[in-house]
Design brief:
Blueprint (H helix, E strand, L loop, with lengths): L1 H14 L7 H11 L1 H14 L1 H6 L5 E10 L10 E14 L3 H67 L5 H36 L19 H11 L1 H21 L5 E13 L8 E11 L7 H67 L5 H35 L19 H7 L29
Antiparallel strand pairs: 1-2, 2-3, 3-4
Helix pairs in contact: 2-5, 3-5, 5-6, 5-8, 5-10, 7-9, 8-9, 9-10
């Protein structure tokens, strides 16, 4: 009875196919937990703190201080021990626009960090698609080369059999042996490439690829190169981040120039002093309130150097915008060209594979009747393999080029639709920390034990 149960379970486990992993599954896993994206999300939160830091200059400050002195003189002026303690309240009224410029620069840096994160998310999606397609491509190429080795082994056995009966020469056998050895070496290389592809997939997704489903249909693409360029000029997150960085640099120039402006503030304090020698001072409270004002007249060239430094950063940011515009244009044009090339190659490779299949079969039949030699058969088999590999490669190239084009126009995140992963909200933390501006001890949890804030929740694939 137990044996029948075990046999039944074995048959069920053999018959039930394991669920295959889809491209959406891979993208969701990478988007949720990839360490590079998690680090980029942490950088956004770093930028979020720039606004509270800059705004703190306009808020009141409260200091607690104290001192103790012991006179060591034996003269009549020995005051003995003096204990002093008190509290001071400071409030800035005017800083020449430095605080406002600092807040504006911090907000621009937040915008730049969010757009940089969006650009990295787009790149991660494209890289994940590439890794997924590479795993499928290398698996298929390995299968084609394994089949080629089997075919050539059969050809070699047939050549040896015909040599034994004097139908072919030793040269024909040697040609079959050489072609089989070359095919075996190609198979080894193909298996090595499959290992590389699997490792790249694991680096991005966080787990080794299992049984992968075929690539799904491509999402909608721009209809022309011109349309893609127009979209990229408007929607490219990399270009938007460069422009936001220049805005922050311009605000830094304003803040540096404000260092030469006057500053005004009010201050209130209450100090208590205790004299051990009451003959030289009366112990008690000393409350005070006053207004402070100041303006730098000569800073030793410090302010001018700070302004020039900020201007140089703005100049760098302006050049970065020009560079990014060129890179975006290049990326769109290259991706469009690769896409068109891959589509044309697919058409040609399909036609070539069909023709080579017929040619290989014909050459084999002609060889059997003696009108073709072994080398003709081997060449026909190799040409058929080459056309099949070219088709597999072209189909992979087309898919990857399409996502590279989507990334260039800022639309690769369309792949997140239907994955079941919750899109990371890059603005939520900024709202949270702005509400903590008056909280002196509003720390976050220990980063080493709270890494979940860097991830996007996985809800499971949508049906």
């Amino acid at each position: 009875m137990r044996r029948h149960i075990l046999v039944s379970l074995l048959l069920l486990s053999t018959a039930a196919p394991s669920s295959a992993e889809s491209l959406k599954d891979a993208i969701a896993q990478a988007y949720s937990n990839n360490p590079a994206i998690a680090a980029a999300r942490a950088r956004v939160r770093q930028a979020d703190e720039g606004v509270p830091i800059a705004a703190s200059g306009a808020r009141p400050g409260l200091d607690l201080g104290g001192s103790f002195t012991q006179s060591l003189s034996d003269s009549f002026a020995d005051l003995g021990q003096i204990w002093t303690g008190g509290i001071t309240l400071r409030q800035s009224i005017w800083e020449g626009g430095r605080i406002r410029a600092g807040i504006s620069a911090a907000e621009a840096r937040i915008e730049a960090s969010r757009l940089n994160l969006a650009a990295q998310e787009q790149a991660l999606i494209t890289d994940t698609v590439t890794a997924y397609a590479d795993v499928l491509r290398t698996q298929e190429i390995v299968k084609l080369n394994e089949n080629q080795v089997r075919v050539l082994e059969q050809e070699l056995r047939a050549s040896k059999d015909r040599f034994d009966v004097g139908d072919v020469t030793r040269t024909d056998v040697a040609q079959s042996e050489a072609r089989l050895a070359a095919s075996q070496a190609t198979l080894i290389a193909a298996r090595g490439n499959a290992v590389f592809a699997r490792q790249a997939y694991q680096r991005l997704v966080g787990r080794a690829p299992g049984q992968l489903e075929p690539l799904p249909p491509l999402p909608p693409l721009p209809e022309s190169e011109g349309q893609a360029l127009d979209r990229a000029a408007t929607l490219s997150p990399a270009l938007g981040a460069a422009k936001a960085g220049e805005k922050a640099a311009a605000d830094d120039v304003r803040a540096a120039k404000a260092g030469r402006m006057p500053s005004i503030g009010v201050q209130a304090s209450a100090n208590y002093t205790e004299y051990s020698n009451s003959a030289f001072g009366a112990s008690g409270f000393d409350p005070r309130v006053g207004v402070t004002a100041g303006m730098p007249l000569f800073s030793g060239g410090l302010i001018a150097a700070q302004v020039r430094q900020a201007q140089a950063r703005q100049s760098e940011a302006l050049e970065t915008i020009s560079l990014t515009e060129r890179q975006v244009t290049e990326g769109v044009s290259n991706s469009w060209a690769l896409l068109q090339t891959a589509e044309a190659t697919i058409t040609a490779a399909k036609s070539q594979t069909s023709a080579n299949t017929l040619a290989a079969e014909g050459v084999r039949q002609e060889n059997m009747v003696g009108s073709r030699d072994i080398l003709d058969v081997l060449n026909a088999e190799q040409e058929l393999l080459n056309s099949r590999v070219q088709l597999v490669q072209a189909e992979r190239d087309r898919y990857v080029a399409a996502y590279q084009l989507l990334e260039s126009v800022g639309a690769a995140d369309i792949a997140l639709e239907g994955t079941g992963v919750q899109k990371y909200d890059a603005a939520a933390n900024a709202k949270r920390v702005r509400g903590k501006g008056w909280q002196e001890f509003g720390y976050d949890p220990n980063p080493s034990t709270d890494r979940a804030r860097n991830t996007a929740p996985l809800m499971g694939p949508q049906q």
